[in-house]
Design a protein that fits this description.
Chain lengths: ~130, ~130, ~130
């Protein structure tokens, strides 16, 4: 029987963990959207897009490793950008963090809940048996 | 052999059901994005964010129960807000409807297709065997 | 043991395939968000919403067929529109491409990374055994 398994939790605002960082269901792994914020101060880690992107992708890589997955098992990535002008820089980071053949991806332009955020990224992965 | 199973359908605009409210695939349950609208009139149920949020979360809880799932089996929630200022109120509702440990979550700021909508929420859940 | 299987790749900008068009994990199929663009020139295929929508849905139908799936096995569709005014036209295309009972769906209003894009659509499907 499959049961939900919490892989890690994210303190948001420094209080109780409001969300999980990752949840496992069978051989599927669902990650929370990762934001380039310091979860204690709720401020962005940098005003630079590439630094924000690296922070987010590093968080995702750490969560994948914690769950026994990894970038080569990522199935889908959803990326939210504040500015369409950052699409080129996002593609460069993407190609660096994920080797070919790469996951499926959707990138759209949206707003965010925390001032200064330029990117948020959500991943879905498989966990090899 | 796994087959797609429709759990419920949503009448939109009072005509034929344009979308399913929930679809089951094996032990996974996919819910439609739920909007705080009266599906007959296609008007929002309230101008108040918290009332809209409760409407949406109540719809989700009903769909989960109908499919033999429940909030403790929800894996991922994607939340779309019209105004970043509603993030605090959304976190309060979230903590009320989902007990710790909570699902993974992504919250972004977007527009909507129906005037007056302040929130839309989409859930993915497991169905315990 | 389940392993990630790339179903197809998308050349973006005419260079190496930056993303996969579809990825299979067990009996689940994840498609990239499909945009109404010519991947060689990175320009939109039309300025007309319905033509853009048909382009995107045709791409999705082709990917589903390539993977041994089809519209009747689609579980979830996420649709991103630039203009809320296109919601009616989107519903007409939706009803044409997907027969009842239909998948679950979420439609929100966002921006895009490529000028002129009016729609992007992402699908998740089952692959019948």
């Amino acid at each position: 029987m499959t049961a939900r398994e919490i892989v890690g939790e994210l303190p948001v605002g420094g209080t109780e963990p409001l969300i999980s960082s990752a949840v496992r269901w069978g051989d599927l792994l669902f990650l929370s959207g990762r934001a380039p914020i310091d979860t204690t101060t709720m401020k962005v880690v940098s005003t630079d897009f590439t630094e924000q992107g690296r922070n987010v992708l590093d968080q995702i890589m750490a969560s994948l490793a914690e769950a026994g997955s990894g970038p080569e098992h990522v199935l889908r990535v959803q990326c939210y950008l504040l500015n369409a002008d950052d699409f080129g820089a996002w593609n460069e980071l993407w190609a660096e963090y994920f080797a070919a053949p790469r996951p499926v991806r959707t990138t759209i332009v949206t707003g965010f809940t925390i001032p200064g955020m330029l990117i948020e990224v959500e991943a879905t992965a498989g966990i090899p048996g």
